[in-house]
Design brief:
Blueprint (H helix, E strand, L loop, with lengths): L2 H20 L4 H11 L9 E5 L5 H8 L4 E5 L10 H12 L5 E4 L12 E7 L7 H5 L5 H17 E12 L4 H4 L18 H9 L3 E8 L6 H8 L2 H6 L3 E8 L5
Helix pairs in contact: 1-2, 1-3
Bound molecules: S-adenosylmethionine (SAM).
């Protein structure tokens, strides 16, 4: 990258963080969190699909990272609030990226396009595609068939060699295992989640390879959290929140 491009990228990242702060969040926390989640992905010049993007923060982060076009699908269904599209559009006005990020109020299964995406993001959304099927996904063949339909759609939308980034909570959690409400994540419905290994195994049947699993720490805990809690053991006793990055295999590879 030239000096001008580097300065432009730094300015966009700053604008992204400032926009979140203006909306009442902590922009620097989000920036550091997404830097970690998307560490393997280069957004420069990419096309990005953010499925169930909510308030669109991941989409806008992609734009700050140099993506040339980002589609954020947000139908405001399971796992949503009715204000998500409005919030996502407000962010787009403040961060001034309406030409790059488009918020589309559609379900994945109702969305069609000619675009082949370099990066597909499914952040805290995969379990909401079909919550009933998700409960029994690791063992039940019918549930797996129902999810296979979603994965076929994702696979058709992503370019060969493209990145798929999935983040969610695993159902393997200390508090869930002993049947007690988790004090750090009291609202999580543990049975409606699956561990990253299950997602990786199922996605491997749809052409997704090279799974890489990371564990996240609470954004608000800062450096201490990043040093102490970004590992499987700590996650098991906290939120069990993971990030799984895969590549779509190149045809013939
Ligand atoms: C818990 S929110 C996550 C929002 C955002 N990605 C985040 O991490 O903050 C899950 C989102 O998935 C969306 N969703 C659920 N099923 C979907 C589907 N079939 N296609 C697209 N989005 C879906 C919901 O509308 C909801 O906003």
């Amino acid at each position: 990258m030239s000096e001008v491009q580097t300065a432009d990228r730094a300015r966009k990242r700053e604008d992204f963080a400032n926009a979140i702060t203006k909306l009442g969040g902590n922009g620097q926390h989000w920036l550091r969190y997404y830097d970690y989640v998307f560490a393997d992905v280069d957004f420069s010049g990419s096309t990005v699909l953010d499925i169930g993007g909510g308030t669109g923060y991941a989409s806008y982060f992609a734009a700050a990272g140099g993506a040339k076009r980002v589609i954020c699908l947000e139908p405001e269904v399971d796992g949503s609030r009715s204000t998500m599209v409005k919030s996502a559009n407000s962010m787009g006005s403040i961060f001034d990226t309406h030409r790059i990020v488009e918020i589309v109020p559609r379900l994945l299964q109702d969305y069609s396009t000619d675009i082949q995406f370099d990066v597909v993001i499914i952040h805290n959304t995969i379990n909401h595609f079909d919550e009933d099927a998700c409960r029994t996904l690791s063992k039940d063949i019918n549930s797996q068939r129902r999810y296979a339909a979603f994965f076929d759609m994702v696979s058709a939308l992503i370019t060969d060699g493209g990145f798929l980034v999935v983040a969610d909570c695993s159902n393997r959690n200390f508090f869930g295992d002993i049947g007690v409400r988790n004090p750090v994540a009291p609202t999580i419905d543990w049975p409606v989640h699956q561990p990253p290994e299950v997602w990786a195994r199922l996605l491997s049947q749809h052409g997704f390879t090279s799974p890489r699993i990371k564990w996240t720490s609470d954004r608000r805990l800062g450096l201490l959290g990043r040093l102490l809690f970004r590992n499987r053991t700590a996650a098991y006793f906290l939120q069990s929140h993971f990030c799984l990055t895969l590549r779509k295999s190149r045809q013939g590879a």
